[in-house]
# Entry
Amino acid sequence: MTLVGGNPYLLRVAMYQIARKRMTLSDLKQVAPTEEGPYSDHLRRHLRNLEDDSLLLAAVKEVMTAKTPVNIGSVEGFKLRSMGLVKFQGNKVIPMCDLYRLYFRDRLLN
# Structure
């Protein structure tokens, strides 16, 4: 649940991969936030959408690298929440799940 944050789609993909014996839970945890993992198309689609909006891109960089909840502004927070990438804690946001945190931190900072 930490990896996918309870997202029904992400959870279904994980369960399918494990049930079909394509990978173990341990394997999934290692490859999930990479281009090799079963979420690669989903993650790249989000990345392309973020790259089209410089304000959202800056906001997601800040959120995915922070160790504590971040105040990024209500417009960016709402858009990122609508995309399913973050969740609110009060007026601040945190990554929706480790999958997004790990993928975007790697892709946007390297």
